[in-house]
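User: two proteins, same treatment. go.

Assistant:
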Amino acid sequence: MKESRGFLRLFTVFFRIGLFTFGGGLAMLPLIEKEVVDVQGWAERDEILDIFALAQSVPGAIGVNTAVFIGLRLHGFWGAVVALLGVVTPSVAIILIIAQLFSQFQSNLYVARAFSGVKAAVLGLIAAAALRAGRGAIVDRFGLLVAVVALGLSIAGIIPVFWVIILGGLAGILYHRRRGDVR
């Protein structure tokens, strides 16, 4: 009985996050962080940053991957399934509704204006998530240097994001090995 309540709570938390987040996975990060760390206490702030990093490094949307990792951590395989269903159900339902009404929405001036505001708000949410993550991840000059180089490589599109993450990890290993922090 206790585990079923845990599954219900997990589903409800991620359903709410999926329902009230516009703009994709990155826009979900501030809500996930607040809910998982501050409200539910399922992870510490430094742990959620590690989960975000892991979720970004595997294929798929970061918000969905984060939900899966948290569900897996809390309740194993079925927790991952429940969290996944929770976070994607609102989007699937909304997409199905919009697909039915798309031709009516497409030319509506008020809807177009509303979405211009929503897009700007989503950008603000992503920036806030980046700043919060940066405070926890950039603790010295080395971290700042890696972040700036990664930003530059990402903006320039020189190499795929996957390789930016791999190179960042390798740089961290080499830097800390040189300093004697890692064997």
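Protein 2:
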Amino acid sequence: MGNFALLAAAAEHAEPVAFGFITPGMWVALSMTAFLAIVIWQKVPGAIAGGLDKQIAAIRAQLDAAKALRAEAEALRAEYAAKIAGAEADAAAMIEHAKHEAQAIITKAEADTTQVIARREKMATDKIAAAERAAVDDLRARAAAAAAAAASQLIAAHHGASADKALVDSAIAGLAN
């Protein structure tokens, strides 16, 4: 019975009506129609569409700028990659050149060392030969001095004044002829 009383009370309650026919739902519909008419009369949809078009244009411009920046960045990356490759090639060439120079320096040093050794060997050989010649000359001079001393002693012992006179006379006779 409690539910029946509620239903009966709801049925007795009437909805307010204005001018005898405008219900609250009609007031809402009427106000919405007036609002939409004012919105259309003031060209709000065009303004909204224009604003959206401006936003779309701005976004497209930003996308185009981003594409241009990306292309520029790709070009810079390619340029720097080429520079790096060139630098690596230059470094490799410099290393190779340095190796060749080092090898040339080593070869020249070896040749110079060989020449210095040969020059010093020749100098030593020349000094030894000079020392041998000096020793031989000294030995000859001593031998000659010893022979002269021995000859003078022999001559003094075996030759007298008469033998000397005969030798001098034969030497003079040899010169006259």
